[in-house]
Amino acid sequence: MNGVLERTLGILELLAQHGEGMELAAMADTLGIPRSAVHRLLTDLVRLGYVRQTRGHGDYLLTTKLVSMGLSYLSNSGIVDIAQPLLNRLAEVSGELVRLSVVDGERLTWVARAQGARQGLRYDPDMGSDARLSCSSSGWAWLSTLSDDEALALMVKQGLGKPEDFGPAAPANLQAAMQAVQATRERGYSLTTDTYTAGLSALSVPVRFAGQPAFGVLTIAGPTVRLTPERMGALAPELVSMAAQLAASSGASPFFSLTAETGQAAPTASRQPIYAA
Questions:
Q1: 99 contacts 138 by C-beta, under 8 angstroms
Q2: For the chain, which domains are there?
Q3: Using only C-alpha atoms, what is the Rg of the chain?
């Protein structure tokens, strides 16, 4: 890992994966950076308010400054303002967790949610994390709007989500993952059970304009004991309808006005909502 900027971002990304904090030596060994260089970078990050050091053990942790920046960006982009009423309505109808993820380059990131479960088991993951494309309902939905070669390339670059690290039904190889993506494309939405997390089921629909890759994904997720195949089938039409509404209203957000691939505004003539992958 070379270059000050690359090393600095590497430290921030590593600390984002370790909420309990990390020692300087562990960071240096993980990133392959000399300890003296890591110390200099951490000193600057602490001074600028992005990192803090615990008193007891000397571990380094992220502050909330990056989180605040991300939330401010989402607020100013208009994503949440547009999507939240639809998420709330879908959560009320389904009684489960509803999530919106957005495509940002080669990443699919959860940015908004609404919780429909009022009691009993509740699935409530932290926002801001990236979906594992090979084994998540959201990932399959996005990849289904791409070509097979593009979908495969993204999964290879991110890495396969193995069953021992995710759900027991996660695809064990890229061929199985591609079969799931192709099935999603034919169906128009994805269905998963025990692929991302044990005991979790989910269904997702891509949000996109006609003839273009998805720029977002709308998902309903919940415990498998409640979100059975029959229940998911019954909820699918409502999810498809909400995805179409979100696509139709997305022009109000500068973020949604950009295509995932080119970063340029989508042609006006092609901005017709499409929700069957």
A1: yes
A2: 4-63 (1.10.10.10), 69-274 (3.30.450.40)
A3: 20
Whole-angstrom CA distances from 209 to 45, 140, 173 are 41, 18, 31
* Cα 144 to Cα 124, 197, 236, distances in angstroms: 25, 21, 16
Please report which helix (H) or strand (E) contains residue 103, including its range: strand 97-104
Q: Do the beta carbons of residue 177 and residue 238 sit within 8 Å?
A: no
Q: Which two tokens stand for residue 174?
A: 């890229």
98 Rama class: left (phi>0) / alpha (psi -120 to 50) / beta: beta
CA angle 86, 89, 91 (to 5 degrees): 105
pLDDT of residue 26: 93
Q: At 20, is the pLDDT very low, low, confident or very high (cuts 50, 70, 90)?
A: confident
Q: Is 49 left (phi over 0), alpha (psi -120 to 50) or beta?
A: left
Residues 6+ apart with CB under 8 A from 123: 96, 97, 117, 197, 200, 221, 222, 223
Supply the pLDDT for residue 119.
56
Q: Please check the confidence at residue 211 and state whether its pLDDT lies above 60.
A: yes
Name the pTM for this structure.
0.71
pLDDT 10s digits, 44-57: 999 999 999 887 66
